[in-house]
Amino acid sequence: MIRGCYTAIITPMLADGAIDSEGLRRLVEYQSENHIDGIVAVGTTGESPTLDWREHMRVIARTNEFSSGKTKVIAGTGANSTEESIHGTLEAIDLGVETILLVDPYYNGPSSLEIRKEYYEPIASKFPEAKFVPYIIPG
Questions:
Q1: 53: domain range?
Q2: Can you say how many angstroms the Cα of residue 18 is from the centroid of all Cα atoms in its chain?
Q3: Are 4 and 10 in contact (CB under 8 A)?
Q4: pLDDT at position 49, please?
Q5: Residue 18 pLDDT > 60, yes or no?
Q6: CB-neighbour burial class of residue 79 (10 A; exposed 0-12, middle 13-18, buried 19+)
Q7: Which of 15, 25, 41, 128 would suit a FRET pair with 95, their CA atoms being 20 to 30 Å apart?
């Protein structure tokens, strides 16, 4: 079970649209210094819909690195494509992240139990060692 206080962090960006790694480091360290139990990297607050997969993985890798094991990291690897989510989840786990945030696929009509079963189940079954947080945005 996941317990404690977690911050869904933003992804700091530079004026040219590149990820601000130094800003991300400061943000992650601030969370740790202020006794936050965990950080959610690349959720919707962290620009998940607007980052490409290289950027997703860079933010997840840097967040995990900057947390130095002091603060838990939840990695957002949800996507419209189940295969993309599987690939992103594999990369996050390879980086040492143990908990994955999966947003419902967008643009598939109203969320339903069937859609969730067809999306979450194949991902979770490939990574039995991981914890998963379903991120359900109704509407």
A1: 6-133
A2: 19
A3: no
A4: 86
A5: yes
A6: buried
A7: 15
